[in-house]
Amino acid sequence: MARTSSWCFGFGMILIALIVPYIGGIEEFTLSVGAITGVPLLAPPIWALFSKRITGKATIFITMISLAVNVIFKIVLPLLTDDKLSRANEVLLGVLLPFALLLAYEIYAAAKGKVSTEYLDLHLLKAVRDAKVIVVDEKEAAEIKRQNKFGLQVVSFSLGFIALMLDILCAFTAKGTVMVAVIATLILWSAWIPYNASRKTSESL
Predict the structure, then answer these.
(1) How many H-runs (helices) and E-runs (strands) does the chain carry?
(2) C-alpha radius of gyration, the chain, whole number
(3) Who contacts 52 (Cβ-Cβ below 8 Å, separation ≥6)?
């Protein structure tokens, strides 16, 4: 799997490098890819987090339709008819089409009284989990607290190290020194939060 993915990634990068000059440069390529794939890939899963009616299959179906339509209008039609969408129309198509399809499916499912089986399974799983009595002995509880303490210390150290690096960067920058220093101070202050929590965890061990 690692070798196969490496080959696919390598060929993909070569293909992108060959396509970029014909699209109009790396900036045009990046904006086009964002317009084509951004909302179609993100909107359906995010919508599913707040909807009890949309199913996994519907999410994939809406994503594939949105991507296909965007690719047709961005790549296929310009090659066949020399007509090209403007940047604003690309973004509007990429944003409005997925939301229109999601809203249409939501209205259709509500009219039919459908509820996603994944939603029902999730609630059933939560009910079963809440019904179980979890018994944790003292040794296991102490081990859990030690792991929590270690995790909090790692987060605190990482934030503190980032703040230190930013403070060092302030000594070598001529512009934006105050802003970098303020950001470093905020990060250092945020590092105190997990550190303080780890101390409380240590006291309870």
Answers:
(1) 8, 0
(2) 25
(3) 115, 116, 119
Distance separating alpha carbons of residues 14 and 66, to the nearest angstrom:
26
pLDDT tens, residue order, the chain (205 aa):
778 888 888 887 787 777 667 666 666 667 677 767 778 888 888 888 888 888 888 999 999 998 888 878 877 777 777 777 776 777 777 788 888 999 999 999 999 888 888 888 888 888 887 776 555 567 777 777 788 888 888 888 888 888 888 888 777 776 767 877 888 888 888 888 888 888 876 666 5
Residue 113 CB neighbour total at 10 angstroms = 7
Check residue 132 and report its DSSP letter: S
Q: In whole angstroms, give the CA distance from residue 187 to residue 194.
A: 12
Provide the token pair at 45.
Answer: 């899963």
Tokens of 23: 């699209």
Q: How far is CA 116 from the centre of its chain?
A: 23
Q: Closest by alpha carbon to 163, among 146, 143, 183?
A: 183
Enter the pTM of the model: 0.53
Only one residue has tokens 């997925």, namely 98
